[in-house]
Every structure is written in C-alpha cells, then in structure tokens.
Description:
The complex is a heterodimer of chains A (about 70) and B (about 240).
Chain A: H1 17-39, H2 52-56, H3 58-63
Chain B: H1 2-45, H2 59-89, H3 98-120, H4 134-166, H5 168-189, H6 202-234, H7 237-240
Amino acid sequence: MSDITFAPEVRPVPIPVREILPWAIFGGLLMILGIYFVGAEEGATTLFSSLSTHEFVHDARHLLGFPCH
Amino acid sequence: MVGNLLLRGMLVGILAGLFAFGFARVFGEPHIDSAIAYEEAMAEASGEPAEEEEELVSRETQAGAGLLTGSVVYGAAIGGLFSLVFAYVYGRVTSFGPRATAGLLAVAAFIAVVLVPALKYPATPPAVGNPETIGERTELFFVMLVVSIIAAVVAVALARRLWSQLGGWNAGIFGGLAFIVIIAIAQYALPTVNEIPDGYSADLLWRFRTSSLGMHAVLWAVIGLAFGAVAERALPAGARARTA
Lengths: 69, 244
C-alpha cells in the first residue's frame, strides 16, 4: 500500500522559507521578464524601439490570450 | 534544493511549451489565418487601397519559429514560477506527496491564471481590438489576473484556517465560495471590453478562443504531471518522507 498518494503516513517536510526566498526573488524576476517579452513588449509598453519582438511572437501572444493590438 | 527545483521546473516548462506549440500549430493557427484573411477582406470592402503592409516578420515565421519561441519562453517562465510556488506549498499547505501536490497546484493555477481572467477578458484573434486602447486593455487584463491570483490565495488560506473546526469538505466549500464571491465582485466592477467589429464571424471567434484555452490546458497539464515526477527525485529523502 506504499503508493497511496492521498494518504501518506508521514507528513512531508516543508522547505524552509529562508531557503526559498532568494530563489523566489531571482527566479521570479527572471520569469516575469520572460512573460513580459512574450506577452506585452511593444504592445502597451516598449523597452526597445522597434516592433520586431511584437511581430515575432505575434501568434503566440494572440493564442496565449494577451491583449495584442 | 530550491535552485534544483527551479531548474527542473523550467525544463519541464520548456517541454510543456513544445507540447503547447504543437497544439497551437494544429488547432490555433488555422483560425489566425482565417482572421487575417477576414481583416484583409474587410479592408478591401471598405474601399481602402489594397495596402501592402511591409511585413517585418513573414507569416511563415510568425506561425513557425515565432510561435515556437513564444510558447517555449512562456512555458519555461510558467514552469519556473510553478516550481517556486510548489517549493512553498509542498508539505506546508498540503500534506500530499510531490506528484499529487504538483497535479493539484496545476489545476488550481489553470483556473486562477487562465480560466478566470479569460472569462472577463478572453483571447482575441487578429482584427479584433482597437490599437489605441491597447494600454488600457493590457492594464485591465493584468488587474484581473492579479485579483484572480489573490482570490485563490485567500480561498486556500481560508479553507486551511477553517479545516480543523469544520472538516475538509465544509472548509473547502467556504474557501471556494470566498473565491467565487471575490471574482464575481471584480468581474462585475471592472469595465467590459468589446471591440469586436460588426459582422465578425462568431464561429471563428469561438473556435479561436477555445483553441487558446486548449493551448493553456495542454501547457498546464504537462507541467502538473511532469513536474511532480521530476520533483519527486529532486527532493531529499527527509523532505520527501515517502512511506516505504
């Protein structure tokens, strides 16, 4: 019966928050930057003054449901 | 250990992005092509000169390398964020094993991050949407997204707080109710956006939007199922606490 996932006999040990926090800040910022470039760059706001990022990920942006143009 | 989970999350996200690309390519792209054809037909009918817009990026690139890049980058980012939330939730909010925790977290995230915002501000194909309101629409979309995530966190926190007094079922019902009430108020209060041109194909719009939801569903399904499997191996025996 060792594979009954919903009835573990031992509670899993949480990872301490102080261990998560630095990664959460570093990773969180990096991930949000990634989502920004796919979802919003050269739409509502622009970091680079061209439309090439917008045009390149155009279809992904539409299909992922971000407001596009 | 968290860094290891983050790396695994991003790799799983890339895999999920590839699956999402495959789905979008087959089920989403035909609707984008139809929408662009419709846009051109409308422009022609309204007597505008057959404008040869200079394409910065060709349609082939947009539907191929562009869609692939967008899907994979988005997938990696979502996978990374997912792994960080998992690191916090695991053993703290749930007492399930890694695979069940990842699966449940993916379902909850799909509802809060994709489904609920899409109910208010659904995906729009090309030729829908006024370029002048892009700032406002982007703002509203992200406000709805943030409200939805906060509502989900509040709902889970409430359910956990009530758990010991009311039992799992009733605590779950109250948590779910709190989520629905917050979302209902937000969706009622936020302005409606409707920039669909008159006579736009309702069928095309529906199919485009369902394919958009399908793409997200594929992404989150792969993340939820695959991340649990790889996280199980990353967690040390102590944190894993599997009943042998």
